[in-house]
Amino acid sequence: MLSLTNQKFIQQCIAPDCGAEFDLDARLFVCSRCGGLLDIERREKIDSAPLRELWRQRRTSLDPRDRSGVWRFREFLPFTEDTEVVSLGEGNTPLYDAPRSADYCRLPQLKLKHQGCNPTGSFKDTGMTAGVTQARKLGARLVVCASTGNTAASLAAYAARADLMCAIVVPSGHVSHAKLAQALDYGAKVFEVDGNFDTCMDQIRELAEDESVYLVNSINPFRIEGQKTVAFELAEQLEWRVPDHLVVPGGNLGNSSAFGKGFRELFETGLIDRQPKITVVQAEGAAPFARFYSDIEHERFVNDEHPQTLASAIKIGAPVSWPKAWRAVQETDGSVITVTEQEIADAKAIIGRDGVGCEPASATTVAGIRKLRINENESVVAVLTGHVLKDTDYVIKYHNGSLVAPDGRHLTPTFANVPIRIQSVKSVADLLR
Ligand code: F0G
Predict the structure, then answer these.
(1) What is the C-alpha to C-alpha distance for residues 200 and 416, in angstroms, rounded to an integer?
(2) How far, rounded to the nearest angstrom, does the alpha carbon of residue 331 sit from its chain's CA centroid?
(3) Quick one: DSSP state of residue 411?
(4) Which of 113, 122, 200, 204 to mutate to test the pocket of ligand 1 (most atoms within 8 A of CB)?
(5) Rounded distance, CA 160 to CA 119, Å?
(6) What distance in Å separates the CA atoms of residue 139 and residue 42, rounded to the nearest whole number?
(7) Tens digit of pLDDT for each residue in 218-273?
């Protein structure tokens, strides 16, 4: 067994002209000197030689930390061996071959990494296990977040496991019923605010200045640490041969930041020999990051005052983690693109036909891959971030042709599949019609 007790991590401001360092357990969410984002950095070199084998062995262990697809990679997490971990057995999500989606994207092959197969049905759990573990370590009593729904559901569940009070702030009327239902059932206090996600985020950031409150949005660097392990799990599933392209949806931009950090660390420690190009896909009506990318100067990040998309999970106009996501795109020679509401809806239906399914925000990936000019011999992994059952209203409306885009236009149900009303089913012919 490797000893984890000597590992040293710090928090460090990512702003190039600041770089301030802070103790790992300083209760900070941004740099207290310049307001920049914080990264968690290792201070000592790690011997990566035994790790692949150690991680493989843990797959047969019954230790709850080894059963978690996050804590199995704990050599790269900023916690010591004796930390009391708050886990729901997150991670260990499937990597599917998706022939119909590949065909749709005019590619011979496409793989889908389904983060919707996490305990609360979204990728948030891989970060939340680390964020809530740190909250408990710091002795927090109340954990909070702003959310478009999935962070809320995830935090509510992990807070319940950790016996912490939990308050979440969501934009009233803009969160899917399934996500709201989860948060309520897990016992969180849910506050519905007039406005959008960005309004909620502003309010919660102010409250988090109070010492008794612990903020667990993805601006919290411990969340990113948990989420980065998805890169490890994916690399392992591909026998340490990373794909040419990794494609993720972009909302608040925590996920793309985490993949960037995960692959960078794997590369720097020699566990992989190159990094995949990270492409971030945004909905056309909520695309401040794509605009920043397209502006050749890349000088000023301009928020979207009124983000609009039916993919409610990514209806975000002021993404807090954009500097980290930008670093990931630059370092990997990736890109940032947009897709329309129609493209998202059709791609989602195709992912369903592969027997996989996902929520609308996740389908931006396949819609985006179809638009990217990817070479036939390049390998591609799309990250599906949420489960199909997260937003069934959207699914039903798509198939029955009543899905209306924010601009008032009816979307075409290109791949519609509607229930057939029938008096009774009497023959096989009935079933085949
Ligand atoms: N996909 C889904 C299903 C999401 O719930 C989110 C974000 C994203 C993609 C975008 O990820 O923010 O890391 O770029 N949901 C957050 C929430 C904002 O509150 O649940 P990101």
Answers:
(1) 35
(2) 19
(3) P
(4) 122
(5) 13
(6) 23
(7) 999 999 999 999 999 999 999 999 999 999 999 999 999 999 999 999 999 999 99
Q: Which two tokens stand for residue 404?
A: 């209306």
- Which residue from 88, 247, 76 is spatially nearest to 160, judged by alpha carbons? 88
Strand 95-97, strand 111-114: pairing: antiparallel
- Put simply, whether the predicted model's pTM sits higher than 0.85 gets the answer yes
At residue 144, what are phi and psi to the nearest 5 degrees? -140, 155
Compute the distance from residue 422 Cα to the ligand 1 centre, in Å.
Answer: 40
362 C-alpha to center of ligand 1: Å?
Answer: 9
Integer angstrom CA distances of residue 103 from 99, 230, 245, 362: 6, 26, 17, 18
Whether 364 lines ligand 1, by a CB cut-off of 6 Å, is: no
Sign of the torsion formed by the C-alpha atoms of 200, 206, 211 and 217? positive
The CA 249 to ligand 1 mean position distance, Å, reads 8
Q: What is the pLDDT of residues 304-360, one digit of tens each?
A: 999 999 999 999 999 999 999 999 999 999 999 999 999 999 999 999 999 999 999
Q: Mean pLDDT, the chain, as a whole number?
A: 96
Residue 282 Cα to ligand 1 middle (Å): 11
Q: Is 31 exposed, middle or buried (0-12, 13-18, 19+ CB in 10 A)?
A: buried
Residue with tokens 């997150």: 90
In order of 148, 234, 250, the CA distances from 280 in angstroms are 18, 17, 6
Confidence of residue 427 (pLDDT cuts 50, 70, 90): confident
Q: Evaluate: CB of 196 within 6 angstroms of ligand 1.
A: no
